[in-house]
Design goal:
This protein is mainly α and 329 residues long. It is built from 16 helices and six strands. The protein is elongated, with a radius of gyration of 24 Å.
């Protein structure tokens, strides 16, 4: 966790004395830590830390929590209450910490990207197009996915129909068998992506887009069933786990939902939450319970910055994405 650079204060400096003491005791609870920093006074059954005055406790905390590695691995939680370090801060301190991480430039870039992704005129055709775009997106660079989508899955600015998508996928498979490189080749899991696109188009035709129609109807009626409809989308739509389903609904008007992608997961990890970001190789996406848990955290952080979860997601994305950075973080 970076220090609050403006005043050169550590995260710990935002805590009151009672919270510092609670945090320090939790932090030094393991035998390894106690053997070095908090050996007990056997007679009184008190830790070494309890003999320190408040200034010394603060000094020890600052030294111990200065490294990002320490916070992300050794000091991220009060194990007893399963709380991240940030949960010890009051609202004002949380807000300051969030603002320290996201610059106005990041927020501006994120808002611009959200406007680019957002469906301006909700319709069945646009819902279908955004579904294809996000099904294609898993684990690859956004600019590559967007180029592929606009070049091969739209015509004259409008999304292809499910029938046209199936024809395109069928032609790419024929080309592949002949040794001709298709536009999707070279992307991660190219064959699986194409299969998901085909399955999605068949599902759309078979169900006559019943669920997407219900989502658009709910959107017009005040978005009262967003969570239930997203869960249906996860269960029914091929190629859509919680991240993809959330993204599809978010860009179609449900800006209160959160996208927990690899950028957001890494960000939450740095904020002290016990989340394991997927790496698209050995670690997949979050299961339902974890997704809903961290979605609430994202919604809380967005509210503190007076942003929608959609704007907050794209601001974090702009901060960390390779689109704006030479190296992925």
């Amino acid at each position: 966790m970076k220090q609050y650079e403006k005043e050169n204060e550590s995260l710990v400096s935002f805590l009151d004395e009672a919270s510092k003491d609670q945090l320090l005791r939790a932090h030094l609870r393991s035998p390894l830590k106690i053997s070095h920093a908090g050996r007990q006074d056997k007679k009184k059954n008190r830790s070494l830390v309890s003999f320190l005055d408040e200034a010394s406790k603060d000094q020890l905390l600052r030294a111990h929590l200065r490294s990002p590695l320490k916070i992300s691995h050794a000091g991220r939680q009060d194990k007893k209450k399963n709380r991240s370090l940030v949960s010890f801060l009051d609202e004002g301190s949380k807000r300051q910490l969030l603002r320290d991480y996201l610059s106005e430039t990041d927020i501006g870039r994120g808002t611009a990207r959200y406007e680019q992704e957002r469906v301006k005129e909700p319709s069945l055709s646009n819902f279908y197009g955004s579904s294809i775009r996000w099904i294609l997106s898993a684990g690859d660079r956004d600019n590559k996915v967007i180029d592929l989508y606009h070049k091969h899955f739209t015509k004259n600015g409008a999304p292809l129909s499910p029938k046209e998508v199936l024809d395109t996928a069928k032609q790419w498979r024929k080309d592949h068998k002949k040794g001709i490189r298709s536009p999707i080749d070279g992307m991660l899991w190219a064959s699986q992506r194409l299969k998901n696109v085909e399955r999605h188009a068949k599902w759309w035709i078979r169900t006559k887009a019943k669920l997407p129609k219900a989502i658009l109807e709910d959107l017009q009626n005040g978005k009262t069933q967003g969570l239930e409809l997203r869960e249906q989308l996860v269960q029914e739509m091929p190629g859509a786990a919680h991240k993809v389903a959330s993204a599809i609904m978010l860009v179609n008007g449900y800006s209160e939902l959160a996208i927990i992608d690899i950028h957001m997961a890494r960000y939450l990890r740095e904020m002290g939450h016990d989340i394991i970001p997927g790496d698209y190789k050995t670690q997949g996406g979050l299961h339902k319970g974890a997704y809903l848990k961290y979605e609430k955290v994202v919604q809380e952080y967005a509210k503190l910055l007076n942003l929608s979860p959609a704007q907050f997601h794209f601001a974090v994305w702009a901060k960390r994405s390779a689109v704006y950075n030479v190296k992925r973080k």
